[in-house]
UniProtKB/TrEMBL annotation:
Coiled-coil portions: none
EC numbers on record: 1.3.3.3
Stated name of the protein: coproporphyrinogen oxidase
Biological process per Gene Ontology, one example term: protoporphyrinogen IX biosynthetic process
Pfam families in UniProt: Coprogen_oxidas
Gene Ontology CC: one annotated term: cytoplasm
Length: 496
């Protein structure tokens, strides 16, 4: 005796929407039942046979409008490849497989012809923003690289044949690699190496879809309070789910100039979202929200030699951006940057800072010990500024990205052509060693990237300098310019 209900999964080239399934059902109702469909109906109990006979008889009398049962429709649709589920049930509605975040976004792109606007999910809007800004930043850095400057060592020329006019060199351009992840998503990595101005510069965009296992969710909850809602039931009080889908999109760049008197700079802005799996029928209802979401990022400057006017310009540019959105942002994010970009094993900051933030959503409050002396909050009732919603935070991230070139390009214009000595170049290599230490030992982004299945290691380690060095028990000479920098790194200053 056949079971009352059973299901068999069939391979299919795509996952149809509910609308597509309905259309296919309608088309079937106007067609003659196939032999396979009639065989599917034979699984019905004898008590249903008379009904089937009556229907079949009616179909023969009126061939233009045959009467077809739900079981026949299900069988025909399944075997024609229109559905992923073959059902012999006669009562339950047909259900499609669940859709991943990557599949939902791919379907949205097809439905809209790739158009992204204010109504699109934040996932697609963030992806569009970072790809646009990547190209703008690459164009700006390319212009600096080809601006005719040279880096000199003791009167000689580094990075090209001595005496060769830089205008005779072919234009230096970024190598651009577009890559895909089999797990979902991909990215664009733009790198320039062995330039005249930039020894190495990398500007990368990554868009990653994946699944967080339970252990990863547990670890991330300590740093991302919005994941407290990941417990079953949505209130955060239940058990953690076995897994969560996630989406992460970000733009990350690191620029290492050839001249040791010009500073290294780092930038990263990102958006992270988690979501439960959804079915085709309810995917449309889950357009702009997930279980949790947040923005993170910032930018910071790492000089080998301290120029106070460079530090003031860089910080003032960032402060102007922050102040346009929330008065608590700059003081909190500046202190947070000093504390995060710290080589704790060396007891010194990586550089002279900038801004840094994470877990930024509409309920954001800086963790204890981070931010300014008063908590950084976009939702505190004591603030005279209303809470910032998702759209306002997205606008802040966009302004932060657009502020990069105004913050960094004037500094490079002042420093890239200054003459320097071999000793200054050696000090730059030692400072780069400290940079490598932070990225490989302390940076959460590097650790997350390397531990993500399907990670593209070349893009993750793009931030490392082309050259670096370490010397045993090295200390700068007292009262030297090198010692002046170390003093600031051990006791961060307020620049604006």
């Amino acid at each position: 005796m056949a079971p009352a209900r059973s299901a068999l999964r069939l391979a299919a080239p795509g996952r149809p929407t509910a609308a597509a399934a309905a259309a296919a059902t309608a088309r079937f109702a106007l067609a003659r039942p196939s032999l396979t469909a009639r065989r599917a109906l034979s699984f019905r109990r004898a008590s249903s046979s008379s009904s089937f006979s009556s229907s079949a008889s009616t179909a023969r009398r009126t061939p233009s409008f045959p009467v077809v049962t739900a079981a026949a429709a299900a069988a025909s649709l399944a075997l024609s490849g229109s559905l992923l589920v073959y059902t012999m049930a006669t009562d339950d509605p047909i259900r499609c497989d669940t859709l991943t975040l990557a599949e939902r976004d791919a379907q949205l792109r097809r439905d809209t012809g790739g158009v992204v606007d204010a109504r699109s999910p934040m996932r697609l809007r963030m992806e569009q923003l970072i790809k646009e800004q990547q190209q703008a930043i690459v164009a700006g850095l390319t212009a600096i690289e080809n601006s005719g400057g040279v880096a000199t060592v003791g009167g000689g020329v580094e990075g090209r044949v001595e005496g060769q006019d830089s205008s005779s060199l072919p234009p230096r351009v970024f190598r651009q690699d577009t890559w895909q992840r089999k797990e979902g998503g991909g990215g664009i990595t733009c790198v320039l190496q062995d330039g005249v101005v930039f020894e190495k510069a990398g500007v990368g965009v990554s868009v990653v879809y994946g699944t967080l296992p339970k252990a990863a969710i547990q670890r991330m909850r300590a740093d991302h309070k919005s994941l407290a809602a990941a417990g079953r039931g949505g209130g955060g009080g239940g058990d953690l789910p076995d897994s969560l889908e996630f989406f992460a999109a970000g733009l990350s760049l690191v620029v290492h100039p050839r001249n040791p008197l010009a500073p290294t700079v780092h930038l990263n802005y990102r958006y992270f979202e988690t979501a439960p799996t959804t079915t085709a029928s309810d995917a449309a209802a889950a357009d702009n929200t997930g279980t949790s979401w947040w923005f993170g990022g910032g930018t910071d400057l790492t000089p080998s030699y301290l120029y106070e006017d460079d530090a003031v310009h860089f910080h003032r540019t960032l402060k102007d951006v922050c102040d346009r959105h929330h008065p608590a942002f700059y003081p909190g994010f500046k202190t947070w940057c000093d504390e995060y970009f710290c080589n704790k094993h060396r007891q010194e900051s990586r550089g002279i800072g900038g801004i840094f933030f994470d877990d930024l959503d509409e309920t954001f409050v800086a963790p204890a010990g981070q931010g300014s002396s008063t908590s950084v909050s976009t939702s505190t009732s004591t603030s005279t500024t209303p809470p910032l919603d998702k759209e306002q935070l997205f606008a802040f991230v966009g302004d932060g990205l657009r502020a990069f070139l105004p913050a960094y390009a004037p500094i490079m214009a002042r420093r890239k052509d200054l003459p320097f000595t071999a000793a200054e170049k050696e000090w730059q290599q030692l400072r780069r060693g400290r940079y490598v230490e932070f990225n490989l030992v302390h940076d959460r982004g590097t650790a997350f990237g390397l531990n993500t299945p399907g990670a593209r290691v070349e893009s993750i380690l793009m931030s490392l300098p082309l050259t670096a060095s370490w010397r045993y028990m090295h200390e700068p000479a007292p009262q030297s310019r090198e010692q002046q920098l170390v003093d600031v790194l051990r006791k961060p200053r307020e620049w604006v």
